[in-house]
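Re: that chain you flagged

S.,

Sorry for the slow reply, it's been a week of failed gels. I finally had a moment to sit down with the sequence you sent. For the record, here it is as I used it:
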Amino acid sequence: MDDYIIKIDNLKFKYEKNSDYAVKGVSLNVRKGEFTAIIGHNGSGKSTLAKLINSILVPRSGRITVKGMDTCDDSKLWDIRQTAGMVFQNPDNQLVATIIEEDIAFGPENLGVAPEEIRRRVDDALNTVGMYEYRKRPPHLLSGGQKQRIAIAGILALNSDCIILDEPTAMLDPSGRREVLETLKKLNAQGKTILLITHYMDEAVQADRVIVMDNGNIKLDGTPKEVFRNIDEIKKYGLDVPQVTELTQELIKEGLKLPPDIIDVKELVDLLCQ
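Prediction finished late last night. Pasting the C-alpha coordinates below so you have them in one place:
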Protein backbone atom coordinates (compact mmCIF):
# COMPACT_ATOMS: atom_id res chain seq x y z
CA MET A 1 0.00 0.00 0.00
CA ASP A 2 1.34 3.45 -1.00
CA ASP A 3 2.28 5.65 1.97
CA TYR A 4 2.15 8.85 -0.10
CA ILE A 5 -1.08 10.78 -0.60
CA ILE A 6 0.56 13.42 -2.85
CA LYS A 7 3.29 12.72 -5.39
CA ILE A 8 4.90 15.50 -7.45
CA ASP A 9 7.46 14.73 -10.15
CA ASN A 10 9.50 17.42 -11.98
CA LEU A 11 6.60 19.90 -11.89
CA LYS A 12 6.79 23.06 -13.99
CA PHE A 13 4.25 25.85 -14.31
CA LYS A 14 4.15 29.41 -15.60
CA TYR A 15 1.32 31.93 -15.91
CA GLU A 16 0.30 33.07 -19.38
CA LYS A 17 1.54 36.66 -19.00
CA ASN A 18 4.89 35.72 -17.44
CA SER A 19 7.98 34.60 -19.29
CA ASP A 20 9.51 33.00 -16.19
CA TYR A 21 8.26 29.81 -14.56
CA ALA A 22 6.52 30.17 -11.18
CA VAL A 23 7.33 26.53 -10.34
CA LYS A 24 10.57 25.11 -11.75
CA GLY A 25 10.98 21.36 -11.77
CA VAL A 26 9.69 20.65 -8.26
CA SER A 27 9.62 17.05 -7.03
CA LEU A 28 7.96 16.28 -3.72
CA ASN A 29 6.09 13.47 -1.96
CA VAL A 30 3.76 13.97 1.03
CA ARG A 31 3.04 11.04 3.33
CA LYS A 32 -0.43 10.22 4.60
CA GLY A 33 -0.97 11.79 8.01
CA GLU A 34 1.98 14.17 7.66
CA PHE A 35 1.79 17.82 8.77
CA THR A 36 3.86 19.76 6.22
CA ALA A 37 4.44 23.51 6.24
CA ILE A 38 5.62 25.29 3.09
CA ILE A 39 7.22 28.69 3.62
CA GLY A 40 8.64 31.27 1.24
CA HIS A 41 8.44 34.98 0.49
CA ASN A 42 5.80 36.40 -1.86
CA GLY A 43 6.35 35.07 -5.38
CA SER A 44 8.34 32.02 -4.24
CA GLY A 45 5.82 29.64 -5.84
CA LYS A 46 4.27 28.19 -2.68
CA SER A 47 0.66 29.28 -3.35
CA THR A 48 0.95 28.28 -7.00
CA LEU A 49 2.09 24.83 -5.89
CA ALA A 50 -0.96 24.52 -3.60
CA LYS A 51 -3.32 25.41 -6.46
CA LEU A 52 -1.61 22.88 -8.73
CA ILE A 53 -2.13 20.12 -6.16
CA ASN A 54 -5.82 21.04 -5.91
CA SER A 55 -6.26 21.09 -9.74
CA ILE A 56 -7.11 24.79 -9.76
CA LEU A 57 -4.09 25.13 -12.05
CA VAL A 58 -2.76 22.56 -14.53
CA PRO A 59 0.99 21.86 -14.91
CA ARG A 60 2.87 22.85 -18.07
CA SER A 61 4.96 19.73 -17.60
CA GLY A 62 5.67 17.13 -14.94
CA ARG A 63 3.05 15.22 -12.98
CA ILE A 64 1.03 15.45 -9.76
CA THR A 65 -1.04 12.61 -8.36
CA VAL A 66 -3.37 12.87 -5.37
CA LYS A 67 -4.16 9.42 -3.96
CA GLY A 68 -3.11 8.01 -7.34
CA MET A 69 -5.31 10.41 -9.38
CA ASP A 70 -3.56 12.56 -11.99
CA THR A 71 -4.46 16.26 -11.58
CA CYS A 72 -4.47 16.63 -15.39
CA ASP A 73 -7.31 14.09 -15.71
CA ASP A 74 -10.50 16.18 -16.03
CA SER A 75 -12.65 13.19 -15.14
CA LYS A 76 -10.98 13.05 -11.69
CA LEU A 77 -11.25 16.78 -10.94
CA TRP A 78 -13.96 16.61 -8.27
CA ASP A 79 -12.57 13.42 -6.75
CA ILE A 80 -9.21 15.18 -6.33
CA ARG A 81 -10.80 18.26 -4.75
CA GLN A 82 -12.83 16.07 -2.44
CA THR A 83 -9.71 14.11 -1.42
CA ALA A 84 -7.52 17.21 -0.94
CA GLY A 85 -9.81 20.06 0.08
CA MET A 86 -8.49 23.62 0.03
CA VAL A 87 -8.93 26.50 2.49
CA PHE A 88 -8.01 29.97 1.23
CA GLN A 89 -6.68 33.12 2.85
CA ASN A 90 -10.02 34.97 2.99
CA PRO A 91 -12.75 32.79 4.56
CA ASP A 92 -15.49 35.13 3.30
CA ASN A 93 -14.73 33.91 -0.22
CA GLN A 94 -15.62 30.33 0.80
CA LEU A 95 -18.77 30.87 2.84
CA VAL A 96 -21.81 30.68 0.55
CA ALA A 97 -24.89 30.18 2.77
CA THR A 98 -26.72 32.42 5.25
CA ILE A 99 -26.59 29.88 8.11
CA ILE A 100 -23.44 28.05 9.21
CA GLU A 101 -24.81 24.50 9.13
CA GLU A 102 -26.24 25.11 5.64
CA ASP A 103 -22.84 26.31 4.48
CA ILE A 104 -21.16 23.11 5.66
CA ALA A 105 -23.90 20.99 4.07
CA PHE A 106 -23.39 22.71 0.70
CA GLY A 107 -20.53 20.46 -0.50
CA PRO A 108 -22.06 17.09 0.44
CA GLU A 109 -25.41 18.15 -1.05
CA ASN A 110 -23.72 18.87 -4.39
CA LEU A 111 -22.14 15.41 -4.26
CA GLY A 112 -25.57 13.81 -3.85
CA VAL A 113 -24.96 12.55 -0.31
CA ALA A 114 -28.10 11.26 1.45
CA PRO A 115 -29.78 13.79 3.82
CA GLU A 116 -29.26 11.65 6.94
CA GLU A 117 -25.56 11.28 6.11
CA ILE A 118 -25.26 15.04 5.47
CA ARG A 119 -26.74 15.73 8.92
CA ARG A 120 -24.22 13.40 10.53
CA ARG A 121 -21.28 14.87 8.61
CA VAL A 122 -22.27 18.47 9.42
CA ASP A 123 -22.63 17.73 13.14
CA ASP A 124 -19.36 15.76 13.24
CA ALA A 125 -17.46 18.50 11.36
CA LEU A 126 -18.79 21.27 13.62
CA ASN A 127 -17.96 19.30 16.74
CA THR A 128 -14.45 18.58 15.46
CA VAL A 129 -13.64 22.29 14.93
CA GLY A 130 -15.41 23.31 18.14
CA MET A 131 -18.18 25.30 16.44
CA TYR A 132 -21.30 23.15 16.98
CA GLU A 133 -22.99 25.69 19.24
CA TYR A 134 -22.79 28.29 16.45
CA ARG A 135 -24.51 26.09 13.84
CA LYS A 136 -27.67 28.24 13.56
CA ARG A 137 -25.83 31.56 13.31
CA PRO A 138 -25.09 33.57 10.15
CA PRO A 139 -21.39 33.46 9.17
CA HIS A 140 -21.03 37.26 9.01
CA LEU A 141 -21.39 37.45 12.82
CA LEU A 142 -18.30 35.27 13.40
CA SER A 143 -14.72 36.36 14.03
CA GLY A 144 -12.06 35.71 11.39
CA GLY A 145 -10.70 32.68 13.24
CA GLN A 146 -14.19 31.23 13.64
CA LYS A 147 -14.88 31.72 9.92
CA GLN A 148 -11.73 29.81 9.02
CA ARG A 149 -12.75 26.98 11.35
CA ILE A 150 -16.10 26.87 9.51
CA ALA A 151 -14.23 26.75 6.18
CA ILE A 152 -12.20 23.81 7.55
CA ALA A 153 -15.43 22.13 8.72
CA GLY A 154 -16.75 22.42 5.16
CA ILE A 155 -13.74 20.42 3.94
CA LEU A 156 -14.22 17.82 6.70
CA ALA A 157 -17.85 17.33 5.63
CA LEU A 158 -16.54 16.18 2.24
CA ASN A 159 -14.60 13.40 4.03
CA SER A 160 -11.32 14.82 2.71
CA ASP A 161 -8.15 12.90 3.57
CA CYS A 162 -5.94 15.96 3.11
CA ILE A 163 -6.47 19.65 3.87
CA ILE A 164 -4.44 22.22 1.92
CA LEU A 165 -4.42 25.68 3.50
CA ASP A 166 -3.11 28.70 1.60
CA GLU A 167 -2.07 31.25 4.24
CA PRO A 168 -5.28 30.70 6.24
CA THR A 169 -4.19 32.92 9.14
CA ALA A 170 -2.81 35.87 7.14
CA MET A 171 -5.91 38.01 7.81
CA LEU A 172 -6.40 36.94 11.44
CA ASP A 173 -5.41 38.42 14.79
CA PRO A 174 -3.19 36.38 17.15
CA SER A 175 -6.21 34.82 18.87
CA GLY A 176 -7.71 33.72 15.55
CA ARG A 177 -4.37 32.32 14.42
CA ARG A 178 -4.12 30.22 17.59
CA GLU A 179 -7.67 28.90 17.07
CA VAL A 180 -6.87 27.75 13.54
CA LEU A 181 -3.50 26.19 14.46
CA GLU A 182 -4.98 24.28 17.38
CA THR A 183 -7.71 22.97 15.05
CA LEU A 184 -5.11 21.83 12.50
CA LYS A 185 -3.01 20.07 15.14
CA LYS A 186 -6.12 18.29 16.44
CA LEU A 187 -7.08 17.15 12.92
CA ASN A 188 -3.55 15.97 12.23
CA ALA A 189 -3.56 13.97 15.46
CA GLN A 190 -6.73 12.28 14.15
CA GLY A 191 -4.89 11.22 10.98
CA LYS A 192 -5.64 14.04 8.51
CA THR A 193 -2.83 15.08 6.18
CA ILE A 194 -2.17 18.82 6.56
CA LEU A 195 -0.37 20.95 3.97
CA LEU A 196 -0.01 24.47 5.36
CA ILE A 197 1.23 27.38 3.25
CA THR A 198 2.32 30.10 5.67
CA HIS A 199 4.68 33.02 6.20
CA TYR A 200 4.54 32.71 9.98
CA MET A 201 7.57 30.86 11.32
CA ASP A 202 5.88 30.12 14.66
CA GLU A 203 3.26 28.15 12.71
CA ALA A 204 5.82 26.32 10.59
CA VAL A 205 7.73 25.04 13.65
CA GLN A 206 4.61 23.15 14.75
CA ALA A 207 4.64 20.98 11.62
CA ASP A 208 6.36 17.60 11.19
CA ARG A 209 8.16 18.87 8.12
CA VAL A 210 9.12 22.29 6.74
CA ILE A 211 9.76 23.04 3.07
CA VAL A 212 11.39 26.33 2.05
CA MET A 213 10.63 27.59 -1.46
CA ASP A 214 12.40 30.39 -3.34
CA ASN A 215 12.08 31.44 -6.97
CA GLY A 216 9.98 28.39 -7.86
CA ASN A 217 12.36 25.84 -6.35
CA ILE A 218 12.56 23.85 -3.12
CA LYS A 219 15.65 25.06 -1.24
CA LEU A 220 15.32 23.29 2.12
CA ASP A 221 13.27 20.28 3.23
CA GLY A 222 13.39 18.61 6.63
CA THR A 223 12.13 18.68 10.18
CA PRO A 224 11.71 22.15 11.74
CA LYS A 225 14.94 21.64 13.71
CA GLU A 226 16.86 20.62 10.57
CA VAL A 227 15.55 23.56 8.53
CA PHE A 228 15.67 26.43 11.01
CA ARG A 229 19.25 25.80 12.11
CA ASN A 230 20.21 27.21 8.66
CA ILE A 231 19.68 30.80 9.80
CA ASP A 232 21.88 32.54 7.23
CA GLU A 233 20.44 30.56 4.33
CA ILE A 234 16.84 31.18 5.40
CA LYS A 235 17.51 34.92 5.71
CA LYS A 236 19.05 34.85 2.24
CA TYR A 237 15.60 33.81 0.95
CA GLY A 238 13.97 36.82 2.62
CA LEU A 239 12.55 34.86 5.56
CA ASP A 240 12.83 35.12 9.32
CA VAL A 241 13.65 32.31 11.71
CA PRO A 242 11.81 31.68 14.99
CA GLN A 243 12.88 34.30 17.55
CA VAL A 244 13.95 31.63 20.01
CA THR A 245 16.30 30.12 17.40
CA GLU A 246 17.93 33.48 16.77
CA LEU A 247 18.23 34.13 20.51
CA THR A 248 19.88 30.72 20.94
CA GLN A 249 22.49 31.61 18.30
CA GLU A 250 23.30 34.85 20.12
CA LEU A 251 23.68 32.98 23.42
CA ILE A 252 26.01 30.48 21.74
CA LYS A 253 28.14 33.40 20.48
CA GLU A 254 28.33 34.64 24.08
CA GLY A 255 29.81 31.31 25.10
CA LEU A 256 26.83 29.32 26.33
CA LYS A 257 26.88 25.65 25.38
CA LEU A 258 23.52 25.11 23.70
CA PRO A 259 22.36 23.01 20.73
CA PRO A 260 21.98 25.24 17.62
CA ASP A 261 18.59 23.86 16.59
CA ILE A 262 16.32 25.06 19.43
CA ILE A 263 12.91 26.09 18.06
CA ASP A 264 10.81 26.04 21.23
CA VAL A 265 10.86 28.54 24.12
CA LYS A 266 10.23 25.82 26.71
CA GLU A 267 13.18 23.81 25.40
CA LEU A 268 15.48 26.81 25.75
CA VAL A 269 14.22 27.67 29.25
CA ASP A 270 14.65 24.07 30.42
CA LEU A 271 18.24 23.99 29.15
CA LEU A 272 19.11 27.34 30.74
CA CYS A 273 17.67 26.20 34.08
CA GLN A 274 19.69 22.98 34.22
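What I noticed first: The radius of gyration is 20 Å.

Talk soon,
D.
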